[in-house]
């Protein structure tokens, strides 16, 4: 493989993995607080359409990202109200919000289907972008790619090192105990869900403004569900989420390159298309196969509604 | 926009109205239903069908009243929508996706007074016909343009599923390109989806970074044209004119035009002269056209394409004229022979010049 090819594959891998990194890290935080948010697909779709509309109206992709984040927040607020205030079943509420978000995004997006946005130029980081092979691929990227890395470190530090992160995990493990020592369980869960929604919105904004600068119904194409699955297979560990997301992106890009290279392979294309899914699952299951660490990492109250007494 | 539920409600109301004796409407317009597989959007398969529906309305005016339901999945929902159309007094139903075929067949048997037309299928019955267009004719012409304009001699093709219709397109494109430039190769990436802009874009980007300087697609979004615009290479649209998504990149597109066919069919049904048949029209029938050519295409190439287009119109040329040799070197059609429609409809091979391998070829 020659160097230029490697660089372009690495570049494409990072781009393909980025929306998954952002969305999955957001979901990870809300799941660590004990809330299973199945509405990610709908939040991404709303984020994507809002970001597209705002970018189109204002000409600024950054306002677009803000709008996407806002839309993700708004949908997450609906979900949080259903699941936390009204104590609805989280699975049912999440599914409802996912379907609602996808449908509403198609409806409000109608007028934007004919519109194309100019591509947003990448941001080149001086000096390190000149590193051979990887420089162009990693350091001449969209701003949101750098954001996803910052987000990764922030989530890692927050969960493992900060006091607030400890409280959040306590809420996810044993809400009654956290409540007993005076932590506002519902408020913390609200914040966690809203954070997840905001990240899903930004992930959607990445798709419609940076990745494929267009809006069309079905643009998200299941990436919200993939992010949800990633969190579980990564056993709620940020580093594994990162690995899984890039692995998924990498295998997808690799199979496209294999097909496009004109190599006479005997693999059916359908098999190659399914490769990213099962390769990611297999690898993540292998690295997280220890049942003790799974039990240790999976938030004990995940998906269970909590009602503070009186 | 009619959504499915609203439609079912209003359709049942209409069924009630139709059941009332002595309808108040004296000169009743003929009601015609359209079933679309995807949202209409602004370009693509369904968009072209809806354009044709509007042309039909414009042509026949108050004689007809059309109604459509979009985004109907190819499944049990489709049968429900088709049956509602038939039951609520629609005289003609156009079902515009391959996967509706068996549902149309079933409903057609139950409603003998209603005429059903099904796009891209192969079944027909007493009150049930099918229609399709020879998109491969347009593909051949775009292949000629690609063969003349490619510098890298690598052409990229993003494809959805290896079914005969898609293979006809890839093969015709390849034959066209090789007819003017024997050294070109066509590389195909299957995305295994009709519609996934992200994947289509990645596939196009991959082909471009592997040296393709002209790309095209047989999928439903405009992502490939946009990717080409971004990377400064050329592209061909499909279904609709996609030039506004890539003003520099878009060389032309193979576009679909069903309007005249719809108008003619409705007129025939109204006159009682319609006969169930399979219609497969091309340039000759004006069902396939090329979008306006990009000024970047040199004049001699334009003339060449115009001449070929005339020959297609008069029937003096068929893109699948032998000798046609498949990838394995086997002769599929002897020199001078023209491939018949049955063979075209069953196409299951890549011609020589396609560099990729067919997914299920042995």
UniProtKB/TrEMBL annotation, chain A:
<feature type="transmembrane region" description="Helical">
    <location>
        <begin position="190"/>
        <end position="212"/>
    </location>
</feature>
<feature type="transmembrane region" description="Helical">
    <location>
        <begin position="218"/>
        <end position="236"/>
    </location>
</feature>
<dbReference type="InterPro" id="IPR001851">
    <property type="entry name" value="ABC_transp_permease"/>
</dbReference>
<feature type="transmembrane region" description="Helical">
    <location>
        <begin position="243"/>
        <end position="261"/>
    </location>
</feature>
<dbReference type="Pfam" id="PF02653">
    <property type="entry name" value="BPD_transp_2"/>
</dbReference>
<feature type="transmembrane region" description="Helical">
    <location>
        <begin position="35"/>
        <end position="56"/>
    </location>
</feature>
<feature type="transmembrane region" description="Helical">
    <location>
        <begin position="6"/>
        <end position="28"/>
    </location>
</feature>
<dbReference type="GO" id="GO:0022857">
    <property type="term" value="F:transmembrane transporter activity"/>
</dbReference>
<keyword id="KW-0472">Membrane</keyword>
<feature type="transmembrane region" description="Helical">
    <location>
        <begin position="267"/>
        <end position="287"/>
    </location>
</feature>
<feature type="transmembrane region" description="Helical">
    <location>
        <begin position="143"/>
        <end position="160"/>
    </location>
</feature>
<feature type="transmembrane region" description="Helical">
    <location>
        <begin position="62"/>
        <end position="84"/>
    </location>
</feature>
<keyword id="KW-1133">Transmembrane helix</keyword>
<feature type="transmembrane region" description="Helical">
    <location>
        <begin position="91"/>
        <end position="108"/>
    </location>
</feature>
<keyword id="KW-0812">Transmembrane</keyword>
<dbReference type="GO" id="GO:0005886">
    <property type="term" value="C:plasma membrane"/>
</dbReference>
<protein>
    <submittedName>
        <fullName>ABC transporter permease</fullName>
    </submittedName>
</protein>
<keyword id="KW-1003">Cell membrane</keyword>
Automatic annotation (TrEMBL), chain B:
<feature type="domain" description="ABC transporter substrate-binding protein PnrA-like">
    <location>
        <begin position="30"/>
        <end position="303"/>
    </location>
</feature>
<protein>
    <submittedName>
        <fullName>BMP family ABC transporter substrate-binding protein</fullName>
    </submittedName>
</protein>
<dbReference type="InterPro" id="IPR006311">
    <property type="entry name" value="TAT_signal"/>
</dbReference>
<keyword id="KW-0732">Signal</keyword>
<dbReference type="InterPro" id="IPR003760">
    <property type="entry name" value="PnrA-like"/>
</dbReference>
<feature type="signal peptide">
    <location>
        <begin position="1"/>
        <end position="26"/>
    </location>
</feature>
<dbReference type="InterPro" id="IPR052910">
    <property type="entry name" value="ABC-Purine-Binding"/>
</dbReference>
<dbReference type="Pfam" id="PF02608">
    <property type="entry name" value="Bmp"/>
</dbReference>
<dbReference type="GO" id="GO:0005886">
    <property type="term" value="C:plasma membrane"/>
</dbReference>
